[in-house]
Specification:
Blueprint: H1 3-9, E1 20-21, H2 37-49, E2 54-61, H3 70-87, E3 92-100, H4 103-110, E4 121-125, H5 135-144, E5 148-152, H6 165-172, E6 176-180, H7 181-184, H8 190-201, E7 207-209, H9 215-224, H10 228-237
Parallel strand pairs: 1-2, 2-3, 3-4, 4-5, 5-6, 6-7
Helix pairs in contact: 2-9
Bound molecules: fe (ii) ion (FE2).
Length: 248
């Protein structure tokens, strides 16, 4: 632990207003998030400090780069569960994934191989270049199959920031929105921050997520929720956020 770490630990950490993180890359060695059990435990300790006791592990599932399956994730999941028990951490882990809507996803969905969160929720990621051509049809097909679709960090897709009506359309069609806390901090740029604030003002934040890939992300979030801005914003967002309703 560096000097920064020692300094950090002296301050009382403000807690989040919910106990369930529905988006993170804490499962080790399966995507570009945590690369080891040790890194995962450090991140989970940070989650605990923020008041999180349920962590849904949403590793990337993307064509070519991370073609994860239930089998490929399960091994890491069981190892992490053992490590959490050994450490005596008071955290429940759940296995799910963050699905990029691409050709690999189409295959996995057709084969009924998806790994939903409790309540049949599925976290979906758009392309960062442009909206998927058949997004509406795909969301509809998923809902018909009984899935509850959650769009991961819609505020980060800059192609929406000049056509925010589209967000309302998607929301009315039943898609739910998960906003990254990191977006409020400006970590993903001003456009993403503006959009995140727009979602807050319009009461359209259904879920919050850390989307943490490493301990640095955790520290940025920990600092931000200690801020004056979050003290005002948090209670407003809390009116619409349903993170804890996933685990029931
Ligand atoms: Fe993510």
């Amino acid at each position: 632990m560096g000097l920064f770490g020692i300094f950090r630990s002296k301050r009382e950490q403000v807690k989040l207003f919910y106990n369930t993180d529905i988006h993170c890359h804490i499962l080790p060695g399966v995507d570009h998030g945590s690369q080891s059990i040790e890194q995962s435990l450090e991140m989970l300790r940070a989650e605990q400090e923020m008041g999180i006791s349920n962590v849904i592990l949403t590793s990337h599932v993307t064509a070519v780069t991370f073609e994860n399956t239930r089998e490929s994730l399960m091994d890491a999941f069981l190892k992490l569960k053992d490590a959490v028990a050994d450490e005596g951490l008071d955290i429940n882990l759940y296995l799910s994934a963050e699905y990029r809507m691409d050709e690999y996803f189409d295959k996995e969905f057709a084969a009924d191989h998806l790994i939903p969160m409790p309540g049949n929720h599925i976290l979906l990621e758009n392309s960062f270049q442009q909206e998927l051509m058949n997004l509406d049809e795909l969301l509809f097909d998923m809902q018909v199959k009984g899935y509850r679709t959650i769009l991961a960090h819609p505020e980060r897709y800059t192609y929406y920031s000049r056509r925010r009506k589209r967000y309302e359309q998607l929301h009315n069609a039943g898609a739910r929105f998960q906003i990254n806390i990191l977006s409020f901090t400006g970590y993903f740029g001003e456009e993403a921050r503006d959009s995140a604030l727009w979602f807050a003002r319009n009461g359209m934040i259904d879920y919050l997520g850390s989307d943490m890939h490493n301990i640095k992300h955790a520290h940025i979030i920990m600092d931000y929720i200690n801020s004056k801005e979050w003290r005002k914003l948090g209670p407003e967002i809390a009116q619409t956020v349903k993170n804890d309703m996933i685990i029931v």
